[in-house]
Specification:
The chain is an alpha+beta fold. Helix content is 35%, strand content 16%.
């Protein structure tokens, strides 16, 4: 008989993550909030930016690079804008505060734009734009990557990160439009997952300093990540650096600290969250109705030979998330082993029992 790893319940996984954070000095309320967001990332299919990141967060808390007891505060504010000081705490705390404040401002002023400085890695940006769309607003968020893996186009010095951006909007359907993407061909999280699993990278994700394809994810420090669209991706990454980093008094360029290799320095990660109230443009429900009509036209487009039918960004996420909440999360074996090791290291109980036999 073979052993089959059973899914872990989302509630048990959330409790485990919260206990791990508390074991490193994070207050229980903050740990519960962060663990909920981390597991939600896995629930919605962003596994590279969810519980997989727990070991990194614990290392930074332990090393002094992340403040266990951060006091989030508003550094400056107008009717439609604000900057939040994350006090070098867990990034999810500052970004969720920025998202909520942006939505309040949008409901009152039509738009809310809230920047973050002295933040940290906060998981997938989708967490901070989906609620806007579910509330009938347009959302946007972006961040300066938590390490530099990309040179300026045509250069060789690592001065840019994956600098992701996310945009959401009501769609008139069961799932809002949610685009969450890195400005590199692949997110670094995907490369780290492949390294953990002992798998190779596809060609085109990274190149070595000799310009040749690099496919071994364990050698990622020897090469460069590639921007989407060549100079266009480079330009978009720089624009995000200006809006999420420079504008907020946060790190950009050579000031960026590698949050994995350096666990003791403050990263001063910069991000922003925007909420746009479509009612302020006189659209009301017509925005979602028009979006639905156009999206239906796109889905009806005959697929190219060998291609699946057209799908919109974010489509199917809600149903998949509901199923994961119902049956639990199927963690890949490498992540499961890492969480078991973390449980032993932190002196807490693992979130799953022994494998079932088939």
């Amino acid at each position: 008989m073979s052993e089959v790893a059973s899914p872990v319940s989302t509630e048990a996984l959330s409790r485990f993550v919260a206990q791990a954070l508390v074991s490193e000095g994070v207050p229980e309320d903050d740990a519960t909030k962060v663990s909920g967001l981390m597991v939600e990332a896995d629930i919605f299919g962003y596994g590279t930016h969810g519980v997989f990141r727990l070991r990194q967060y614990l290392a930074r808390l332990r090393g002094g690079g992340c403040n266990q007891r951060a006091q989030i505060k508003i550094a400056c504010e107008t009717a439609a804008t604000a900057v939040i000081d994350g006090d070098n705490g867990l990034g999810h705390l500052a970004m969720s505060a920025a998202r909520d404040l942006a939505m309040v401002k949008a409901s009152e002023a039509g738009i809310g734009w809230v920047g973050v400085r002295r933040g940290n890695h906060a998981g997938p940006l989708a967490l901070y734009v989906r609620p806007q769309a579910e509330a009938g607003m347009i959302g946007m968020a972006a961040a300066v990557g938590s390490a530099n893996h990309v040179p300026p186009f045509g250069g060789t010095d690592l001065l840019l990160g994956t600098n992701p951006i996310a945009i959401s909007a009501p769609s008139g359907g069961p799932d809002p439009f949610v685009l969450d993407m890195a400005t590199t061909v692949a997110a670094m999280g995907k490369i780290k997952v492949l390294a953990q699993q002992g798998a190779a990278m596809p060609e085109g994700w990274m190149v070595g300093r000799d310009g040749e394809p690099l496919t071994d994810p364990t050698r990622r420090s020897e090469g460069f990540m590639l921007p989407i669209g060549g100079p266009k991706g480079f330009g978009l990454s720089v624009a995000i650096g200006l809006l999420a980093g420079v504008l907020n008094g946060a790190a950009f360029g050579s000031d960026v600290v590698d949050f994995t290799s350096d666990t003791s320095s403050e990263t001063n990660t910069g991000q922003f969250v925007m909420a746009l109230n479509v009612a302020a443009f006189g659209m009301g429900d017509r925005f979602a109705e028009t979006a639905k009509r156009v999206f239906d036209e796109m889905r009806a487009s005959a697929p190219l030979p060998g291609h699946e039918p057209v799908r919109m960004p974010g489509e199917g996420k809600g149903a998949a998330a509901a199923e994961r909440r119902r049956i639990g999360l199927a963690l890949n074996p490498a992540l499961r082993r890492d969480l078991e090791a973390l449980a032993q290291e932190q002196g807490i109980e693992a979130p799953f029992g022994p494998p079932a036999r088939s």
